[in-house]
Design goal:
single chain, about 575 residues, alpha+beta, Arc Repressor Mutant, subunit A, 6 domains, 5-stranded antiparallel β-sheet, elongated, disordered C terminus
Length: about 575
């Protein structure tokens, strides 16, 4: 009779596996300490390295069925409920590209059969059938495929099966950028995107395109990226490099100027980089150079959404005082809600008491960039874009109306053209307006906004002559807007009248915030707007012919008369009582 070699007793499962011949014995040894000695199931699961739920299921089966539970059939396996074709696909995918993750395999199964197994189920199928996997390749590496169409078709086919870009690039041994580029061409052009086009082929570089570039090039500050973005709005799709070559050709042909470029600077980390829309806004004021006589200084006040780089509100103003700033902030909050944070420099209008009261009322946290570091404010980059896109047209404006039109055109073009910061977004949203979308910040009811700006903003209905009444003064706004509601922004030194975001008039004032008394209104300045055309046709005289001193634009009204004391009823009551006594 054959005898076994005597070995030392051990409780180490790894050592026991070397002595045991059948898988049923191993299964029993895994559960024996909790079943026989009452050891902790969780502790035993950690010791042998299997999930606690699996061990508990085995113990429950042993207690209910005894030794029969150790002899699992194929139907008892957790993954046996998967159809054979799904299990076969799992094994084929793992053998074709071993680095592929379990969740990606599950996704491909869902694309193929409409059934998505769990990642752990995929892992059990692979571990339980290691001998069923055979290494094979459906496609050669990308650069070993001779036909360029077949190369790109392999990428498209794998992507249609559910493979992600990382796995496609690893399997075909190419770059992810190549996969992205091929998929973009397939989406945009279909089968035509698989063809190998020569350099520049398919680009609409014709006389029409070159003429459009020449017309844009009258602004010498525009570069190749901005020209490419502007052409895309016209339906002409040329890359920045192609536009750069056309710009160079036009400069040689027509003697045009080359845009000025500063020296390249080291890229610094932005402290107010946002991770979601309407998390951080930026605001600043920029001086605008113009050629309008007797206009004085003109400033551009803008509010920027940091994540999308979208201009939320912007306006031109002849002053950079508190009322002008709060007017632009009100326009942004009214349309887009309030942000979580607002970033600016240390300017006085941004940290004034009235501004701080508005921030608190709207739940905005105010942040300030470091001194002498304007680059920390995202809107500084936007102002550089404004300089290149709009300063040329600002300098050519011959009236205030043209200056405002050039500014509004810049805002519209900037928000709808492709932005350098979004050139590599995977969702193909390129312009600030597309990235911002319809999402807003914290919205406030109209009455809440009115309460937040109550100390500086007043709404009035203009009378038939275009005047508004404010604090015992009649202020002229615009006769063409008679019976319309306007907004009056009152500060300690200035008063502005606005309608639909356009400044109608501006006055110098003396206003006491403590006593709420408007003591003086002087130096009126009326701005040219389209509403002049709505003025009545029949008039006794034209106001413009009387000159600046020919008619009153601000008129001080008399104070309200005090109420009279009504003593007659008391005298009557007295006479009645005296009569009754007599």
């Amino acid at each position: 009779m054959a005898t076994h070699e005597k070995v030392e007793h051990t409780e180490d499962l790894d050592q026991l596996k070397l002595l045991l011949e059948f898988p049923e014995q191993i299964t029993y040894e895994r559960m024996r300490p909790p079943v026989v000695f009452g050891d902790s199931v969780a502790e035993r699961a950690r010791q042998i390295g299997i999930p606690e739920t699996t061990l508990r299921r085995k113990i429950a089966g042993f207690k209910s069925e005894g030794m029969w539970s150790l002899f699992e059939t194929e139907q008892d396996e957790p993954h046996s409920t998967l159809p054979p074709e799904v299990r076969g696909l799992i094994l084929n995918l793992k053998s074709e590209y071993p680095p592929m993750r379990d969740n990606e395999i599950a996704t491909i199964c869902y694309v193929r059969f409409g059934q998505r197994p769990h990642g752990r189920t995929v892992r059990r199928v692979i571990e339980s059938n290691p001998t069923a996997m055979r290494m094979f390749r459906r496609f050669k590496p990308y650069h070993e495929i001779e036909d360029i169409r077949e190369r790109r078709l392999a990428i498209v086919k794998l992507h249609s099966e559910g493979w992600n870009v990382k796995s496609i690039a690893g399997y075909l041994k190419t770059y992810r950028s190549t996969v992205y580029r091929t998929l973009r061409k397939w989406i945009a052009e279909g089968v035509a995107g698989l063809e190998n086009k020569p350099r520049g082929a398919g680009k609409k570089v014709n006389l029409h395109a070159m003429n459009e570039v020449r017309k844009m090039q009258e602004n010498p500050e525009l570069g190749e990226f901005r020209v490419s973005a502007a052409l895309a709005q016209l339906g002409i799709y040329l890359g920045p490099r192609t536009c750069g070559r056309i710009l160079a050709i036009n400069r040689r042909l027509y003697g045009l100027k080359k845009p000025k470029r500063g020296s390249k600077k080291e890229k610094k980390e932005m402290p107010f980089q946002s991770s979601r829309r309407h998390e951080i806004w930026s605001v600043d004021i920029r001086y605008v150079d113009h050629q309008l006589p007797d206009m004085g200084n003109v400033y551009s006040i803008s509010v920027l959404e940091n994540h999308s780089r979208c201009i939320l509100a912007s306006a031109l103003s002849t002053t950079q005082d508190l009322t002008a700033y709060l007017s632009v902030l009100h326009a942004a909050v009214e349309r887009y809600g309030a942000p979580e944070k607002l970033v600016s420099d240390g300017g006085g209008v941004f940290k004034a008491n009235q501004s701080q009261a508005v921030y608190r009322a709207l739940g905005i946290t105010k942040e300030v960039i470091e001194r002498r570091k304007p680059w920390q404010n995202f809107i500084e980059t936007t102002f550089n874009i404004q300089r290149r896109m709009a300063d040329y047209y600002f300098g050519r404006a011959e009236s205030w109306e043209e200056l405002v039109a050039a500014h509004d055109h810049w805002v519209e073009q900037y928000n709808t053209q492709g932005h350098w910061a979004h050139r590599e977004r995977k969702d193909f949203r390129r312009s600030p307006a597309e990235v911002l979308g319809f999402l807003t910040g914290v919205r406030h009811r109209p009455e809440d906004l009115q309460r937040a700006f109550f100390s500086t903003r007043f709404t009035r209905i203009l009378d038939v002559s275009g005047y508004a009444r404010l604090k015992h003064w009649k202020i002229y706004a615009e006769e063409g807007l008679a019976r319309r509601e306007v907004a009056l922004w009152l500060g300690t030194e200035s008063l502005a009248v606005e309608f639909a975001g356009d400044t109608l008039a501006r006055y110098d004032v003396r206003y006491s915030m403590s006593t709420k008394r408007l003591r003086e209104v002087k130096k009126p300045r009326l701005f040219e707007t389209n509403y002049h055309r709505s003025r009545p046709q029949l008039r006794l005289f034209e106001l413009d012919t009387l000159g600046e001193a020919g008619w009153l634009k601000a008129l001080r009204l008399k104070d309200y008369a005090s109420r009279r004391a009504h003593n007659r009823p008391q005298a009557l009551q007295g006479s009645l009582f005296s009569a009754a006594i007599g």
